[in-house]
Amino acid sequence: MIGGGLAGLSSAVALAEAGCLVRLLEKRPRLGGRATSYTLPDGSEVDNCQHVTLGCCTNFADFCRRVGADKKIRFYDRLYFVDAAGRRSTLEASLLPPPLHLAPSFLFFGGLTLADKRGIARALFTIARAGGEPPGADGTSMLDWLGRMKQTRGAIERFWRVVLVSALDEELARTDARYGIEVFWKAFLGSRGGYRLGIPSVPLGDLYEGCRAAIVGRGGRVHLRCGVREVRVREGGFRCAVLDDGSELTADACIAAVPHDTLLKLVPQEMGANGGPLAGLRNIKTSPITGVHLWFNRTVMTEPFLTLLDHTTQWVFNKSRLHGQDETSDANGRPTKETGSRAKSNRQYLQLVISASYDLVPRSRQEIIDLCLRELGDVLPATRRAELQRATVIKDVNATFSPEPGVDRWRSGQQIGVKNLFLAGDWTRTGWPATMEGAARSGYLAAEALLAGFGRPQKCLQPDLPLEGLSRLWAKESRLAVHD
Ligand SMILES: Cc1cc2nc3c(=O)[nH]c(=O)nc-3n(C[C@H](O)[C@H](O)[C@H](O)COP(=O)(O)OP(=O)(O)OC[C@H]3O[C@@H](n4cnc5c(N)ncnc54)[C@H](O)[C@@H]3O)c2cc1C
């Protein structure tokens, strides 16, 4: 296994459990790839960027269960939003059957006019009625599709954009409508629990503590600081991996679970050249995410997290609260009785996330911090009076692949016609955007392909959440209609 990100880890663990002897080679000193954390000089652990999962991410959840990380992720049933005037709204499921379960809290959602809400309800109904596959979405951008659905400007800016830019790390005009529609179908319409937000209650790196045991405990090995510089292919099959120190490692099979641009540097050049099986990867673009870490000298926020409307900042995560280091509020963000003098002396660590942060890429660290502080002043007034003790900005310019219209034709499958060489990575053709779920799916798919190749077929991929309520009925009807 080349690469110890989520794709490589999920694949390695599934294969080890299936009885394979796995050797995992990771270039960095830590596991987790893009979803990991590192230690600051003062000993504190900081995520490279806040990561969240959703109830509909069934494969990532399965991977977490296998390695004991499920207990380190807490799920929230209530989502918090705040507009520029500081007005709060929440979304949480009612007892109504899907897709209507979120409708009551949506009705009271501030920041949207009646016309906005009518339009949104119409578009969501169109998605649900078609079982998640409304006609006319192929090859078009999400923004065009929303235009066709006659969405108001307010609905686009304060609803669709708010959800989708952070879910897909891309602007609506550059997002394939199919991806945008899938987010709403899988997370908000198809089942009651799909929208539940899972947030690690530990630094990201701690999620992978059980991986080593899962691999090594079954006779495998995990090598950190072990980069691969070449994947050799001979006579149409995998021959060996050449490590950075020049040594060659042979194996019965190899899964390359590295980013797509890295893969092109490892494999023989002709595979990525015109006409080669990986030529399409050159067309995959990437989009940036910026994370801003702020440490205040006092409590400035009670909610565990907030989604911002009308701001550049999209999410604020109350890391002190999420990591259980702040006792000023309960799990749903309500202040506890003890909030008072003790709360005032509490240091608080917030993490802000801005996806598709193209505009921030050329801006200086200080400019970004100043912008975020100004915006926080609107929604968390206590930040204006608090002292900012420390701040860090992490710009990841190539954070994820861009889900632009038609991107699926460039994404590669797990097999590329080279015997015993398989691919994994969030960028492979999983049908999912670049997420921890997409990475876990790719890992399981690669494991399935490998096991089948050795005559031991086994199912690793987990099913989606079962459809519920009217969504189930409508999905069945629309599929029947398609077959007719
Ligand atoms: C800033 C940011 C925020 C994100 N937020 C979220 C979120 O909230 N929710 C969500 O679901 N997803 C989120 N994602 C996406 C998610 O992190 C990725 O989709 C997922 O982690 C990708 O996993 P992967 O294994 O496919 O790739 P990677 O994590 O990139 O793993 C590849 C691994 O291969 C290793 N490697 C590379 N070259 C070599 C080599 N030559 N030899 C050996 N090893 C090598 C790398 O060091 C790395 O560990 C975010 C991503 C970023 C960057």
Structural write-up:
α1 runs parallel beside α15 (436-453), α2 packs across α15 (436-453) and α5 packs across α7. The radius of gyration is 23 Å and the shape is globular. The chain is built from 16 helices and 19 strands. The two termini are 45 Å apart. It has a 7-stranded mixed β-sheet with strand order 7-6-15-16-17-14-18. It is an alpha+beta fold and 484 residues long. The structure holds flavin-adenine dinucleotide. The site of flavin-adenine dinucleotide has 37 residues, from α1, β14, β18 and α15.
Task: Briefly say what this structure is.
With 484 residues, the protein is α+β, with helices and mostly antiparallel strands.
Separate helix tally: 16
Low-pLDDT runs of 5+ residues are: 329-345
| Approximate helicity band | 25-40%
Beta-strand proportion: 15-25%
Give the overall average pLDDT: 94
> In which order are the strands of the major sheet placed?
7-6-15-16-17-14-18
Number of strands: 19
Terminus-to-terminus distance: 45 Å
Rg calc: 23 Å
Bound molecules: flavin-adenine dinucleotide
Gross morphology: globular
| Main sheet summary | 7 strands, mixed
Question: Structural class, from secondary structure content?
Answer: alpha+beta
